[in-house]
Write a structure and sequence with these properties.
alpha/beta; Aspartate Aminotransferase, domain 1; Aspartate Aminotransferase, domain 2; 2 domains; four-stranded mixed β-sheet; about 35% helix; globular; binds pyridoxal-5'-phosphate
Length: about 450
């Protein structure tokens, strides 16, 4: 038995789904100790948007290390931090007409969520926070209280409080506008739901099944919040940093969140780093009121500044992501078979898309079959029912296509179970599977 199984806690997770020992990685590919190559559609759960060991970012990191630059500095002012702030302001905030103060929290996404919750509660004097069905915001107690999944919630083994869950966009299907329900509950003094300090919402639910909220729904949520004095926190930890095609996932949706959370791919190099972007007048913290030893991961400041300079100085990268997203959605539509008992539905947008499977167990079997064939791909959703494609945004089109070939092979293998039968997507214009064809196109959903 390798030391991993003997010594590492039972809590380990991903290494059970992908049982090998990884050694090196480059771009969109991982290599294991036997020299086997895997295409990476897991991407550190969205922490490696610019690929593994991105050469240009690596150069900046090495140069900084060789220069004896400050590595740990609590929240001291450093040149590396100054550089990051300048770049973030100049290339991200200003061109988008966004005005935010930047809080560096502890380096995990969950710590940014905790900080945001403390701040909105302090700012409004209210305790309740509204989160949404299938939302995932991390597993520390405050963030876990806003996370829907009962598997994670049970692990708290204590009370998770001061949150109320509301139905996300589409929770009851396309014909039910959940905003109407939310408005009713929040304007009815006898609904039993305390007026909240804030809404916290993902525009695409990364861990909760790749449900994507429409622009109209998000605008309605913001309008309702403004009417009732409820702040809007967008958790862009997974969907942000370019994952949906724009730096922030809500760009072009006509909303300006009061607070935005970024983490995962922010450092651009898989290094831990998180920020809370705060509407300036809400920045009512006292000095050091929310602190943490690792708020100044200076190496992450260096890599983050470099990543933003390389990729976000103009629109080229955004276009590139858009093109790859189209390849991905077209191919997923082709892969989804109709002539089987099982049912499938496409999910997500940008380069965070997948296939919802019923029965749910298909997704897990496809993930395992894909691993055997050299593709690392995870599942998402309450019942792990969604096959989740999360390739690096920088993936070469040929590798993306190869990964999707493997995905198709794996799905066929699971469905045929060795019977030799082939399943097909319906020919264009001749819809067969009613559930599948009822899904509106991405353009329809996002202009709704
Ligand atoms: C991953 C994630 C978090 C939590 O981040 P950690 O670094 O794992 O604590 C919070 N929100 C969303 C949307 C995430 O995807």
């Amino acid at each position: 038995m390798r030391v991993h199984e003997r010594l590492e806690s039972q809590v380990r997770g991903y290494c059970r789904s992908f049982p090998t020992i990884f050694t090196t990685a480059k771009g969109a590919q991982l290599f294991d100790w036997k020299g086997r190559r895997y295409i990476d559609f897991l991407c550190g759960a969205g922490s490696l948007n610019y690929g593994h060991n991105n050469p240009e970012i690596k150069e900046a990191v090495i140069e900084y290390l060789l220069s004896d630059g400050i590595l740990h500095g609590l929240d001291l002012a450093t040149e590396a931090k100054e550089r990051f702030l300048d770049v973030f302001e100049g290339l991200i905030l200003k061109p988008r007409n966004l005005e935010y103060k930047i809080q560096f929290t502890g380096p995990t996404g969950a710590n940014a969520v905790e900080a945001a919750f403390k701040l909105v509660r302090k700012a409004t004097g209210r305790r309740n926070i509204i989160s949404f069905t299938n939302g995932f915001h991390g597993v520390t107690l405050g963030a876990l209280a806003a996370t829907g999944n009962s598997y994670y919630r049970r692990a708290a083994a204590t009370t998770l409080g001061e949150t109320t869950f509301m139905p996300y966009d589409g929770y009851f299907g396309p014909d039910f506008n959940t905003l109407e329900y939310i408005r009713k509950v929040l304007t009815d003094g006898s609904s039993g739901v305390d007026l909240p300090a804030a809404f916290i919402v993902e525009t695409v639910q990364g861990e909760g099944g790749l449900n994507a909220a429409s622009a109209g729904w998000l605008r309605g949520l913001q309008a309702l919040g403004r009417e009732l004095g409820i702040l809007l926190i967008i958790d862009d930890i997974q969907a942000g940093c370019g994952r949906t095609g724009t730096f922030f996932s809500f760009e072009g949706f006509g909303i300006i969140p009061d607070i935005v959370l970024l983490s995962k791919s922010l450092s651009g190099y898989g290094l831990p780093m998180s920020v809370v972007l705060i509407r300036p007048d809400l920045d009512i913290w006292e000095p050091g009121e929310h602190n943490g030893t690792f708020r100044g991961n200076n190496l992450a400041f260096v890599s983050a500044a470099k990543a933003i300079e390389i990729y976000w100085g103009d629109d080229l990268f955004s276009h590139e992501i858009g093109k790859k997203a189209e390849i991905l959605s077209d191919r997923l539509a082709e892969i989804i078979p109709f002539d089987t008992e099982a049912e499938f539905e496409p999910r997500g947008r940008g380069l965070i898309q997948g296939i919802e499977c019923a029965p749910a167990s298909i997704a897990d079997r496809v993930s395992r079959a894909a691993f055997e064939r050299g593709l690392i791909i995870e599942t998402s959703g309450a019942d792990s029912q969604v096959i989740k494609c999360l390739p690096p945004l920088t993936i070469e089109v040929s590798i993306l296509t190869r990964g999707l070939d493997i995905l198709e092979d794996s799905l066929q293998a699971v469905l045929t179970d060795g019977s030799g039968r082939q399943f097909h997507a319906p020919p264009p214009g001749r819809p067969q599977n009613s559930r599948w064809v009822s899904v509106p196109t991405a353009t329809e959903v996002y202009s709704r």
